[in-house]
Every structure is written in structure tokens, then in C-alpha cells.
Design a protein that fits this description.
2 domains, single chain, five-stranded parallel beta sheet, Rossmann fold, OxRdtase_FAD/NAD-bd, about 220 residues, six-stranded antiparallel beta sheet, 5 helices, Elongation Factor Tu (Ef-tu), domain 3, 11 strands, alpha/beta
């Protein structure tokens, strides 16, 4: 199915990431963590579909996406960052493998944090605390961290930031590896969620296996 949605508002989240709020179609539903195929409703772009995650909650009266733009090439995300209220987009039905399967460790790289935004917001709305949950979030620089203040304000959530390309940053701890994971993950207790670039997902799966996390407790996404 294809549904046309209208942009209500847009605002910057970081220097290259925007929060886009759309009117919500009547009866539309999804599970926190799911995404949809999104396309610009413009000539020449309607077939250029990309998977983007809902960052609003199912009970909200709007649809929200938090989308990172890549302005160095004239692609879909660059043009999404230029959208204005009243513009329209096309979406399909919800899909995706990432969903809340219990407390644990959420491992994200860059824009891969977006499925965890709705999951953590939904957990917090239901229980009032995120005690027992850890967000491990890797970015290139400090200013790339999406919704840092919101995550740090979530009661009970343990946030572990790391940056890879900013040597002077107090967060510069290199890439996430098995040694780091061994200090954050309790095998057999924690569900481990991974979302990010494909090479990172593969490396994190190997790292988690190395510290004893069963494959059944690892949740990843594949939009191939």
C-alpha cells in the first residue's frame, strides 16, 4: 500500500538531522522500533524509497521521523532536509525486525539509533523508569549525537557515548569492541539490540558472541 502524508513541521535535532512531524492517517498503526518505506512525493523521486523509522509512539496523533541528511550528494536525505510544511511524502506499511523484547543493552551507530528512540520512549511511558537499560551510542563527533539531552534525561537509562573521529573530545574512546561490551552486558540476562551500518552490525554480533551472549538474545535489523 502507498499512503500520502503531509508535513506539519520540521526542526533541527543536530547540524544534519531533522525531526519531521506529519499528519497521521486515520487507523495507521505500528510497533515501536518499526520503519516504513518513505519516498518524496515529487516527480522523479516517488520510486526512490528509503526505510526510515517512526520515532513517534503508536498512540500519538502524528507521525514523527528523525532523519539524518547527507548533503554531500544530491540524494533523498538531502532533499528531505529541505522539506517545508505542506510538502507531502509517500509511505508504505510498517515493517522491521527491531521491537522491544525486554530490558538490555541498545547498541547504535549514527542514525541507527532511531529505532531505539521510540522503544525507549515507549518503555519510559509505560513504567516511568528505564532502570536496567543501557544505550551505547557511537558517533564520529560530539555534535553528531542525536537527542543526547533527551536520552540523558530519561530516568534510569545508562548512557555510554563514544566518538571515533574527534581526538580532543572527552568521549573519544574509539570503536565499540568486545572488551567494552564485556563491561556493559550481562550474558543470559540482557537482550542486546544492534542498529547501524552493516559492518558495525557484523562486528557487534561477533563481539557479543565473544562475551557469551546467545544469538537468541541479539536483535538486529536487515532492510536488504
Amino acid at each position: 500500500m502507498t499512503i500520502r502524508i503531509t508535513l506539519k513541521s520540521t526542526e533541527p535535532v543536530t547540524h544534519d538531522t531533522h525531526r519531521l512531524t506529519f499528519e497521521k492517517p486515520e487507523g495507521f498503526d505500528f510497533t515501536p522500533g518499526q520503519a516504513t518505506d518513505f519516498a518524496l512525493d515529487r516527480d522523479g523521486w516517488r520510486d526512490e524509497r528509503r526505510p526510515f523509522t517512526f520515532t513517534s509512539l503508536p498512540g500519538d496523533d502524528h507521525l514523527e521521523f528523525t532523519i539524518k541528511s547527507y548533503p554531500d550528494h544530491d540524494g533523498v536525505t538531502k532533499r528531505i532536509g529541505q522539506m517545508a510544511p505542506g510538502d507531502t511524502a509517500l509511505i508504505g506499511g510498517p515493517r522491521g525486525a527491531i521491537e522491544d523484547r525486554g530490558d538490555g543493552v541498545f547498541i547504535a551507530g549514527g542514525a541507527g539509533v532511531t529505532p531505539f528512540i521510540a522503544i525507549l520512549r515507549n518503555k519510559l511511558a509505560g513504567t516511568g523508569t528505564l532502570q536496567g537499560n543501557t544505550l551505547v551510542f557511537s558517533n564520529r563527533t560530539d555534535r553528531d549525537i542525536i537527542l543526547r539531552q533527551e536520552f540523558e534525561a530519561m530516568p534510569g537509562l545508562n548512557c555510554y557515548w563514544t566518538v571515533t573521529d574527534q581526538p580532543g573530545s572527552p568521549l573519544a574512546r574509539g570503536r565499540i569492541d568486545a572488551e567494552l561490551l564485556s563491561t556493559l552486558v550481562v550474558p543470559g540476562r540482557d537482550t542486546c539490540y544492534i542498529c547501524g551500518p552493516d559492518p558495525m552490525i557484523g562486528a557487534m554480533q561477533k563481539g557479543l558472541a565473544a562475551v557469551g551472549v546467545p544469538r537468541a538474545r541479539i536483535v538486529t535489523e536487515d532492510f536488504g
